[in-house]
Design a protein that fits this description.
Blueprint: H1 2-10, H2 13-39, H3 52-76
Helix pairs in contact: 2-3
Length: about 80
């Protein structure tokens, strides 16, 4: 735990942006899993109200953009 706190304290902006990008991709994958779960429902009239596809697309694009922006800084160190 201490190592993680020390890393976050002295992390560069590129490292922090990369972590936000990775977290966004994790949320996108979770939304994709929930959309697949909803598509395989047993009762077709039980639709639900959460826009999983929109959430997936939003977080996938956001996470991808953040990771693309952070790559040069992370590689430089």
């Amino acid at each position: 735990m201490r190592a993680m706190i020390a890393f976050l304290t002295f992390a560069s902006e590129a490292d922090i942006v990369a972590m936000w990008g990775a977290a966004s991709i994790v949320v996108a994958v979770a939304a994709l899993a929930m959309e697949r779960r909803r598509a395989k429902r047993t009762r077709i009239d039980n639709v639900g109200w959460m826009p999983w596809t929109g959430i997936f697309l939003t977080f996938a694009v956001l996470g991808g953009a953040l990771l693309v922006v952070a790559i040069p800084g992370v590689l430089r160190g």
